[in-house]
C-alpha cells in the first residue's frame, strides 16, 4: 500500500541545526503525531513537507508523486499553527474564504463551501465577526476551517492546541476526532501533549536532534521504546537490566534482576542480557503479597511520594534497583502510604517488556 505522505531520507541544513535523514510514511486517513524534545526539528520537518524549506537531499512524496520541487500552493496541504495566523483585518468569513482564492468557484459556490465547513467546525454563527473579538478556541476553529476548505491531501498541525485552555483543547480534540472520521482526513500533528497521542494518533514518530528515532503505533512505541532517548523521553523510567534464567514452553521468560526473579511474556534466550521496562501505571501497590496472577511481586521501601495531578508517583527501593509506581490519589490515601513504609510493587508478566536483548555468543 502506498503511503499518502512520505518523506524519504530528508536532509535539511539550516546552519546550526540539520534534519538528518528523516524517513516517515503516513497512510491515507491516518493520524500521525510527531513528538520529541524542544529543538529536535519537528517544525522544520513539517515546514519541509509544506514547502517552506527545500531539502539538500531526500524527497517529499504525496500519493507516490515526488513533490519536493513543487511550490507550497501546488501541494494542496492545510496547515494550522499554534498562534492561529489569521488576518486581523478580515472577518471570519473572509479568513476562511481566503483558502479558496486560487480556486475557480462562483460567488455563491464559495459562500456555500464556507458555510458548510464553518458548520462542520461549529462557527457558523460567527461568520461576520471581527477576528479580534473571538476567543482562542474560536480563532483556532476559524484557522482549522481555512485549512480544511481546500480539502487538503494532508492536514498539518503545528502545536495547534497548545495556546488553548484545557477545556478548549479537549473540545478541539473531540472535534478533530470526528472530522478525521467523517472527512477521512490524513493528519500530521506536531505536539508536546501526550494526551493528543493517546486520544488521536494511529501512529507516533519520535524525533531527537534532527533524526526520527522510532515510529509505530503509540501502544507499541510506548510499551517497547527504543533504549536511550526514546525510553527516557516517554517517561519509561522503570528501566531494569537483567539476565535470562529460563524460558518455559508456555512463553514465560524468567529473568534475574538484582536479587529478584521477574517474569516477562516477551521471548528471549537463556543467558541473554536484557533491558526491561514497565510503565509506572501498570504497577499495583499493596501492603502484602497479592494473588499469584500478578507474577511479579517485589518488596520495596517507599523512598518518595509526589502528587502529580490525579496521580501519586511513588518511588520504591528494592534490592539492587528502584521502581516508580503511579497510583490514584484515592488509592494512595486509602492505603495511607508514607515514606519509609515497606510495601509490595506488583505487576503482570505481560507488563514487563523486554526492550533490548544481547545474546551471549559461545
Ligand atoms: N529558519 C531557520 N533558520 C535557522 N535555524 C532554524 C530555522 N528554523 C528553525 N531553526 C532551528 O532548527 C532547530 C529545530 O527547530 P524546530 O522549530 O523544528 O524545533 P521543534 O522540535 O519544533 O521545537 P519546539 O518543540 O521547541 O517547537 C532549532 O534549533 C531552531 O533554532
UniProtKB/TrEMBL annotation:
Q: Does the keyword Nucleotide-binding apply?
A: yes
User: In what residue span(s) does the ABC transporter domain sit?
Assistant: 2-234
**Keyword set for this entry?**
ATP-binding, Nucleotide-binding, Transport
Q: Which Gene3D superfamilies match?
A: 2.40.50.100, P-loop containing nucleotide triphosphate hydrolases (3.40.50.300)
Pfam families of this UniProt entry? ABC_tran, TOBE_2
A single GO molecular function term of this UniProt record:
ATP binding
What is the name listed in the Swiss-Prot or TrEMBL entry for this protein?
A: Related to ABC transporter, ATP-binding protein
Native source species: Desulfotalea psychrophila (strain LSv54 / DSM 12343)
Amino acid at each position: 500500500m502506498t503511503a499518502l505522505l512520505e518523506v524519504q531520507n530528508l536532509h535539511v541544513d539550516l546552519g546550526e541545526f540539520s534534519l538528518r535523514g528523516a524517513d516517515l510514511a503516513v497512510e491515507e486517513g491516518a493520524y500521525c503525531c510527531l513528538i520529541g524534545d524542544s529543538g529536535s526539528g519537528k517544525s522544520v520537518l513539517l515546514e519541509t513537507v509544506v514547502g517552506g524549506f527545500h531539502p539538500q537531499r531526500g524527497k517529499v512524496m504525496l500519493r507516490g508523486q515526488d513533490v519536493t520541487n513543487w511550490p507550497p500552493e501546488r501541494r494542496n496541504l492545510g496547515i494550522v499553527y499554534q498562534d492561529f495566523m489569521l488576518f486581523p483585518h478580515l472577518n471570519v468569513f473572509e479568513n476562511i474564504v481566503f483558502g479558496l482564492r486560487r480556486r475557480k468557484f462562483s460567488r455563491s459556490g464559495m459562500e456555500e463551501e464556507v458555510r458548510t465547513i464553518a458548520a462542520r467546525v461549529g462557527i457558523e454563527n460567527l461568520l461576520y465577526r471581527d477576528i479580534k473579538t473571538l476567543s482562542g478556541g474560536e480563532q483556532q476553529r476559524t484557522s482549522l476551517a481555512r485549512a480544511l476548505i481546500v480539502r487538503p491531501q494532508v492536514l498539518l498541525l503545528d502545536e495547534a492546541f497548545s495556546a488553548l485552555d484545557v477545556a478548549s483543547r479537549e473540545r478541539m480534540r473531540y472535534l478533530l476526532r470526528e472530522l478525521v472520521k467523517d472527512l477521512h482526513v490524513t493528519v500530521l500533528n506536531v505536539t508536546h501533549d501526550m494526551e493528543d497521542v493517546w486520544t488521536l494518533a494511529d501512529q507516533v514518530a519520535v524525533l531527537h536532534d534532527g533524526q526520527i528515532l522510532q515510529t509505530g503505533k503509540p501502544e507499541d512505541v510506548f510499551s517497547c521504546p527504543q533504549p536511550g532517548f526514546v525510553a527516557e523521553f516517554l517517561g519509561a523510567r522503570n528501566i531494569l537490566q537483567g539476565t535470562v534464567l529460563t524460558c518455559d514452553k508456555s512463553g514465560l521468560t524468567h529473568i534475574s534482576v538484582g536479587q529478584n526473579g521477574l517474569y516477562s511474556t516477551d521471548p528471549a534466550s537463556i543467558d541473554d542480557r536484557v533491558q526491561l521496562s514497565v510503565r509506572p501505571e501498570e504497577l499495583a501497590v499493596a501492603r502484602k503479597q497479592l494473588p499469584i496472577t500478578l507474577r511479579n511481586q517485589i518488596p520495596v521501601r517507599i523512598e518518595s511520594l509526589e502528587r502529580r495531578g490525579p496521580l501519586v508517583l511513588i518511588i520504591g527501593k528494592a534490592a539492587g534497583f528502584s521502581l516508580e509506581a503511579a497510583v490514584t490519589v484515592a488509592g494512595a490515601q486509602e492505603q495511607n502510604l508514607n515514606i519509609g513504609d515497606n510495601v509490595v510493587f506488583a505487576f503482570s508478566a505481560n507488563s514487563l517488556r523486554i526492550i533490548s536483548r544481547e545474546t551471549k555468543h559461545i
